């Protein structure tokens, strides 16, 4: 009895292929019985990959297998169009990288997905956009966490921490200042001030404008006038009749 196309070695029908672009990064495949029977090399690695749920049974490689041609023969794959798998990186026997791509012509191919076989376990590599999204999300999380910690530190200025995140009570009714935090804030403000442009000079006063004199300035002028007068002898000022008699 002939084995139907795309069937497993046991004669069972294959698993329904996943549509292109399906995210299967959360699963992996490993067949320990096959690994104990056959070696992992560039000649048999594709047969092992074809057992996994990542394999598309409608690819051009499967057509070559049905014709008893090696499924990774580039001279035959370049003559076909459609979905195909290519072995892009090889580090026998530990690492194999297989790229899924769409071939439109012998020279034009469009990469679709990438799979890697690490020590016998097959994984789907995440797409670059998902990697960027995960890295950016992680960076934003740590930045938000840093701002939260900085805000909590600023709220605790004036207190001394006695426990983990618990502000201590002010001693003797006086607020204790954390001078390290004060110096750090002063350094930040000074660096920001150096980056700002200098303030423009004030506009000149119009002709004939007289500055108003405040009460403090008037008191200062009166005091200067009193101090500028020569001291007066109190005895002479009282006159001869009011001098003290001894």
Characterise this structure.
The protein has 246 residues and is an alpha+beta fold. It has a domain of 98 residues: Nuclear Transport Factor 2, Chain: A. 35% of the residues lie in helices and 14% in strands. The protein is built from eight helices and five strands. Strands 1-5-4-3-2 form a five-stranded antiparallel beta sheet. A hairpin with a 2-residue loop joins strand 4 and strand 5. The longest helix is centred in the middle third of the chain and has 28 residues. It is elongated. The N terminus is likely disordered. Its main location: nucleus. It is found in: Nucleus. Belongs to the Mediator complex subunit 6 family. Keywords: Activator, Nucleus, Transcription, Transcription regulation. One of its GO terms (molecular function) is transcription coactivator activity.
Query: What would CATH call the architecture of the domain at 28-125?
Result: Roll
CATH class of the domain at 28-125: Alpha Beta
Strand arrangement across the biggest beta sheet? 1-5-4-3-2
CATH topology of the domain at 28-125: Nuclear Transport Factor 2, Chain: A
Helix content: 25-40%
Distance between the termini: 155 Å
Compressed to H and E, one letter per element, the order equals EHHHHEEEEHHHH
Number of helices: 8
Which of globular, elongated, flat, extended, rod-shaped describes the shape?
Answer: elongated
User: Structural class from helices and strands?
Assistant: alpha+beta
| Percent in strands | 5-15%
Enumerate the spans where pLDDT stays under 50 for 5 or more consecutive residues.
Answer: 1-13, 232-238
Mean of pLDDT:
75
> CATH superfamily of the domain at 28-125, please?
Mediator complex, subunit Med6
The count of DSSP E runs of length 2 or more, i.e. the number of strands, is 5
Main sheet: strands, sense, barrel? 5 strands, antiparallel
Cα radius of gyration in angstroms: 44 Å
């Amino acid at each position: 009895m002939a084995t139907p196309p795309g069937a497993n070695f046991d004669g069972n029908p294959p698993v329904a292929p996943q549509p292109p672009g399906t995210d299967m990064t959360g699963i992996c495949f490993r067949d320990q019985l096959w690994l104990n029977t056959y070696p992992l090399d560039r000649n048999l690695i594709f047969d092992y990959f074809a057992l996994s749920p990542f394999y598309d049974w409608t690819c051009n490689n499967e057509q070559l297998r049905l014709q008893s041609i090696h499924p990774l023969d580039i001279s035959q794959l370049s003559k076909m169009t459609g979905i195909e798998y290519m072995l892009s990186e090889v580090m026998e026997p530990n690492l194999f990288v297989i790229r899924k791509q769409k071939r439109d012509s012998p020279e034009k191919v469009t990469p679709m997905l990438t799979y890697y076989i690490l020590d016998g376990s097959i994984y789907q590599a995440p797409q670059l956009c998902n990697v960027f999204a995960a890295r950016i999300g992680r960076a934003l999380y740590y930045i938000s966490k840093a701002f939260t910690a900085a805000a909590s530190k600023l709220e605790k200025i004036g207190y001394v921490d006695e426990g983990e995140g618990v502000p201590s009570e002010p001693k003797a009714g006086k607020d204790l200042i954390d001078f390290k935090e004060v110096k750090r804030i002063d350094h930040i403000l000074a660096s920001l001030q150096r980056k700002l442009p200098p303030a423009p000079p004030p506009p000149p006063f119009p002709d004939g404008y007289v500055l108003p004199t405040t009460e403090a300035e008037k008191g200062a002028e009166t005091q200067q006038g009193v101090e500028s007068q020569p001291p007066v002898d109190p005895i002479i000022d009282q006159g001869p009749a009011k001098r003290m008699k001894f």
